[in-house]
Predict the structure.
Amino acid sequence: MSHTPQSPARHLRWLLELLAAGAPAEELGTVAAEARRNGATAEDLAEVEQATEAALRVHSTLRQHRRREAELTALFDTAGDLAALRDLDAVLRSIVRRARMLLGTDTAYLTLPDEEAGDTFMRVTDGSVSELFQNLRLQLGEGLGGLVAQTARPYATPDYRTDDRFLHTGSIDAGVLDEGLVAILGVPLLLGSGSGGQVIGALFAADRTPRTFAPDEVALLCSLADHAAIAIDTAKAMADARIALAELAEANAVIGEHSAAIQRAEESHDRLTDLVLRGGDVADVADAVAGLLKGDVAVHDGSGRPLTTVGAHGGAAHGDGGGTPGGGEDGGGAAEAADLVAAAKSSRAAARAVFRDGRWVCAMLAGQELLGCLVLYGRPDLDGPDQRLFERSSVVTSLLLLLRRSVAETENRVRGELITDLLTAPDRDPAGLVARGRRLGFDLDRPHILLAARAGGEARDRLADAAVQYLFGGGGVTAEHEEAVVLLLPPGGAGPGEAARLAAGQLGQLVGSPVTVAGAGPAAGPRAIADAHTEGVRCLRALRVLGRAGQGASVAELGFLGVLLGDHHDVDGFVTTALGPLLEYDAQRGTQLVRTLRAYFDCGGSLTRAKEDLHVHVNTVVQRLDRVQALLGPGWNTPEQALELQLALRLHLLSGA
């Protein structure tokens, strides 16, 4: 069969159509074969073959351009992912997936170092089917990936299993075998350039069949690895920035709170200082502190006695800014005072406020001397700034107490000179003494309780200062006279005996040694006060003779000794004290209990002789004595009380009653 020769132009047009259609290279090669079959001349066939070679070169160039376009598109897409970096894992997965797609490998994966474990681990895999491979961990220098991380250079192998360039380990080989990988290309994730670059991971592409990776494929994977490194570094930088911003915000908040606390502390200190400078007293300062700290505030002296108590939103609850000597304390109050003194000492030792029994206690000091304590209730959650404000308030209160005490000591010295003159020569110029007292704010014409106190040993030198501290804020006055300390107290609820006992206890605590106190009065006017002092000194001697050192009592409380020692010899008062219940009973019922008791004592305690003296039955005597016991108490027949009763009966008989 003969073929009609066709012109070369037809075959050239055919080649162009195949190129335009994107036909594979194999189809381009069929054009020359077709021309040969159609009987093309040698000259035409040579022209067609040359055109085919040119078409193949064009086809290769187009294919490379398309591939490069795809690579550039992938790189641009990756760059876009980096620009909108929100999820690092998503970006890394996208990079690994594009590496696998562009290189046309069976799998791709990315490893990152574990700084705590000191090795590397699989962060992202794409196309992997082996769980063993996905959980592989590589030490530095092990396998292809370990060498990439160690040298910061790309490595490729057409068959990893037989390549002895790499350090094979059982775990790595087992993972590679389980995944079925043969050809592997690995490139480093580098931060920085040159020899100073830091390897922060590695990117891999791998096939399950032998394959040689071209240089442009290595370059492409390196470009993707660079993007991955940028993504990781950017994510870390953003995380560090977020942490830094959070820390900065927290620090800014702390600085703001600290600044506000400092400003509040300064304002509070200025307010308290101004209050003191304007002549405010302890109650005013406590009221200001209570308002600042939103709690109840109390001020106590060095022995635990309350000076003032202030509510959180009002004025002073009680107290006039000073203690009231002789005001009285029950057992619970004494225990409370002891607890506060112990807490104040702990505060002094710690040099800060302490929290005890649901309240804050801060010592008020003058040097190491404990002036008292500031107590805050209702604020168990007291924080740092408020605690420092509370402690600063105690300093201001200490200054106020110290100032007031200095003023009181000065006033007391002047008043003490008046008391010394009064006790030395009360009759020399009574009107002048009264006038001097009024100029000093001390009215001698008002009734006063007089206390005479003594202490032994070294405590004697501290007693005068302790008396000033005891009277501080109470309106009394003290002076040393004839080896004793004299205290004049304004009239109050306590009598001389009770006032003496309270003073003995408090002064003993202040000097740290027993103090004996005698009470007399009330007395008004220079002569009466001098007489009360004489009576008090005699009572002091009696207490010492009776072995009652460190106690307090009045002449009236010493029974018949009081009658003997007292200047007024209050016989009626003594008789009434001893026999009052019997006298009242006889007066109301017409009985003879007093006569029966006198007969009983006159007969030496004999019931038989007493019934004969009274001309009654012995049972009547017994019944009357039972009534005496009911009225006077079961101890009426003890030697001490019996002596008191016999003396009272004799005085009653002698008085003609």
